[in-house]
Amino acid sequence: MFNTARMALFAALFAGVAGPALAADFAEPQPIEEAPPPIVEAQPVDVGGWYIRGDIDYHKSTLRGIDYIVYGPPPGTNDFDFGKLKGGFSLGGGVGYKVNDYFRTDLTADYWFKSDFNGQTSDLTTVSTEVSRMSALLLLANAYVDIGTYHGITPYVGAGIGGAHIKWDTVHDPNTTETNPGSSNWRFAYALMAGASYCLTDRLILDAGYRYTHIQGGRMFEFDTTSSGPGFDHGINTHEVRGGLRYQFGGNNGCAAPVVAYQPEPEPIYTK
After folding, report:
1. Domains, the chain, ordered by start
2. Which residues form the signal peptide (predicted)?
3. Strand 88-100 vs strand 153-168: parallel, antiparallel, or unpaired?
C-alpha cells in the first residue's frame, strides 16, 4: 500500500513537470504577417516647366479690300474690283512655359511662304489684271487655357497678340508694262486659337488645332510714275490648320505616370 501511494505521488510530480514542457514543444506558430501594400512615393510639387515647340500649317487668307490713288482724269481714290490670295504654308517655332495644370504661355514666330495674289481694277474704259505675291513674318505672345486631360488628350483655347511684317512683291499687269513696286511694313496682329494636345511620351506632346489671325491694314504698293499709287489693303484675315510638337524640359505636363517605390516583402516570423 505504501508502494502504491508512492507511485501515485511520483506520477503526479512527473505530470506537473512534463506537462508545461510538452505544451511548449507543441505550441502553434504565430500567423504569418501579410506584406503591406506598395507605397507611392510622395513627389515634390513640380508643376511648371519650360518647353519648345515647332509647327507647320496650311492657311487661307482673305483681303478685306484694296484701294489706290489715281492722278486722273479725274483724280481720286479707286477700289480694286476684287483681290484674292491663294492658300499657302508656314513654318514656325517658339519657346514657352507651363505655369500650372491649366495655364501656359509662349512666344512664337511663324514665316508664311509666298501666296499668289490675283486682282482686277477697272475704269470707264479699261480693265486691268493685277498680280503679285505676299509673304509674312508673324510674331505673337500667346496664352492658353488647358481645359483638362481625358485619356491623354488635352483640349485648349488660347489668344495671342503681336505684329506681322508683311511683304508684297511688285504689283503688275502681265498684259502691260505698268508696275507698282510692292511695299514692306510692320502691322498690328492678334490671333484666337483652339485645339488639343496628346502625350506621345512623358516629354513629347503632339499639338493640333485651328488659329484665326487678323492683321491690320497697311500700304500694299508704291506709286507708278505714270498713273496711280500708292495702294493700301484694308487688312488680312487668315484661317490656319496647324500641327506641331512640343517638348517640355521639366515639370509636370500631365503625361508622366506616378513613381511607385519598391517595397520588399518581409520575411515571415515564427515564434515557439
Report:
1. 52-248 (2.40.160.20)
2. 1-23
3. unpaired
DSSP state of 27: P
Phi, psi torsion values for 131, nearest 5 degrees: -130, 155
Amino acid at 73: P
Distances (CA, A) of 93 to 48, 55, 78, 139: 20, 6, 40, 10
Rounded-to-integer distance, Cα 233 and Cα 46, Å:
48
pTM of the predicted structure, to 2 decimals: 0.76
Q: Which amino acid is at 174?
A: P
Q: What are 47's three cell numbers?
A: 508643376
pLDDT digits (tens, 9 = 90+) for 65-121: 999 988 766 667 889 999 999 999 999 999 999 999 899 999 999 999 999 999 999
Strand partners, 190: 161, 214
Contacts of 253 (CB under 8 A, 6+ apart): 49, 51, 98, 199, 202, 203, 205
Give the bridge partners for 79, in sequence order: 67
